[in-house]
Specification:
This protein is α/β, with parallel strands linked by helices. 31% of the residues lie in helices and 24% in strands. The chain has twelve helices and 22 strands. Helix 1 runs parallel beside helix 4, helix 1 packs parallel to helix 8 and helix 3 packs antiparallel against helix 4. The radius of gyration is 24 Å and the shape is globular.
Length: 453
């Protein structure tokens, strides 16, 4: 028996921390875990799950409109923001109970307190402290906002889920996936939305054609997308807020939401006091086995800023536990991780963008198709689907898939297996498509639209 109170102590009970704790316990480790908020982390409590529920809600207005093209007559519809938030909260409560049950059933000891380092092997929790042979940091990320005058009046995604009423006019500042998703949510639910982004197209880091198509489609939905625009000052007024823009304009709104990025949640943990290497932006530096420069301290998830996605954190947590406590060596491979943006229309993507492929892969061929989804031939809606394949010329491997349109995330999840497996364009070509579906387009594109190298 170890002289330590725990074989493993996990700081942070989000997706990565909970998975690591459970798997380590299943390997026979004595595990403790702490969480200063609610068990489940960003994804379950204030991220992916509640956001996706709100995305579903936002689609109903268009569904009611589209029904007419299919012979349906839909009567007057009303929407209640409080009812939606109440239903969302009930589901989050249920999932929180599920996570609590998972930890309990695994034999993990939970402390609902903030944990901080007071020694290389010791964690402070409120009025008590515990020692652990190994410690895992899984504290995730937090929203970042710029230091401008009036920023205290802005909300972030954390607060957006708990607004008492739907604002009539809202400014969403940012161009990343969170900004695009919430712009679509508020717009679909009936708010007048202005989205401001300092770049020339939303979704920086995504394939350039994905960025272009999403920017265009957001505007079609009625979102006032102001590119190459930034907020210099926020002022409180009697009726709401005034935003001074860098172009000289003044924008009047009822709410201001900032979705300008996230940073590792490491403030006050005491990492530097125990010698854990942290980069200037707060990222904990780890190796391929999630170990820090201190050989018994590890980190997984968004706090490491490798790939900031919930399934990645979960996978990293599992690999860590198997490696350290399960007598397996499981490094995490972050290549070809699929991702989605639940904008309207949504995005699904895996692998290299066209521009990154040119720099990292070499000569590539690009296949692309853009079309009107079958559903909208009768609904009459002006919405496009775009699909794109990036193929390494020499090996013929498909190294990138990008889809914008209805069901894009569901489509790409399946095709991600093919990309991860290194399948070639010829294997795609000899696969018979399901007709009529949008996804069949990915196995029927025969001629490249352009080549590089």
């Amino acid at each position: 028996m170890s002289d330590y109170d725990f074989d493993l102590f996990v700081i942070g009970a989000g997706s990565g921390g909970v998975r690591a704790a459970r798997i380590a316990a299943s390997h026979g480790a004595r595990v403790g875990i702490c969480e200063e908020s609610r068990v489940g982390g960003t994804c379950v409590i204030r991220g992916c799950v509640p956001k996706k529920l709100l995305v579903y809600a936002a689609h109903f207005a268009e569904d009611f409109e589209d029904a007419k093209g299919f012979g349906w007559t839909v009567g007057p519809a009303t929407f209640s923001w409080p009812d939606l938030i109440r239903a969302k909260d009930d589901e989050i409560d249920r999932l929180n109970r599920v996570y609590l049950g998972l930890l309990s059933d695994a034999g993990v000891t939970l402390y609902q307190e903030r944990g901080t380092f007071i020694g290389a092997h010791r964690i402070q929790l409120g009025e008590e402290s515990f020692s652990a042979e190994r410690i895992l940091i899984a504290t995730g990320g937090r929203p970042w906002v710029p230091d401008i005058s009036g920023i205290e009046y802005a909300i972030t995604s954390d607060e957006a889920f708990h607004l008492e009423e739907l604002p009539e006019r809202i400014a969403v500042v940012g161009g990343g996936y969170i900004a695009c998703e919430f712009a679509g949510i508020f717009n679909g639910l009936g708010a007048a939305v202005t989205q401001l982004y300092r770049g020339d197209a939303v979704l920086r880091g995504f394939d350039h054609e994905v960025r272009s198509v999403v920017s265009s489609e957001l505007r079609k939905k009625g979102i006032d997308l102001m590119l190459e625009s930034n907020v210099e000052r926020i002022r409180k007024t009697g009726a709401g807020f005034e935003l001074d823009l860098d172009g000289g304009e003044i924008l009047e709104v009822d709410r201001v939401m900032y979705a300008t990025g996230r940073v590792p949640n490491v403030r006050g943990l005491g990492l530097r006091d125990v010698g854990v290497e942290v980069s200037p932006d707060g990222r904990i530096v780890v190796d391929e086995l999630s170990c820090t420069n201190i050989d018994h301290i590890y980190a997984v998830g968004d706090v490491t800023s490798r790939v900031n996605l919930t399934p990645v954190a979960t996978y990293e947590g599992h690999c860590f536990a198997d490696t350290v406590f399960g007598n397996q060596t499981r490094p995490v491979n972050h290549e070809y991780v699929p991702s989605a943006v639940f904008s309207q229309p949504p995005v699904g993507t895996v692998g290299y963008s066209e521009e990154d492929a040119v720099h990292h892969i070499g000569p590539v061929d690009v296949y692309r198709s853009e079309f009107r989804p079958m559903k909208h031939t009768l609904s009459g809606r002006d919405e496009k689907t775009m699909m794109k394949l990036i193929v390494e010329r020499e090996s013929r491997k498909v190294v990138g898939i990008h889809v914008v349109g209805l069901d894009a995330p569901e489509i790409v999840q399946g095709f991600a297996v093919a990309v991860k497996s290194g399948l070639t364009k010829e294997r795609f070509d000899c696969t018979i498509g399901i007709h009529p579906t949008a996804a069949e387009e990915l196995v029927t594109m025969r001629n490249p639209v352009r080549s590089h190298g």
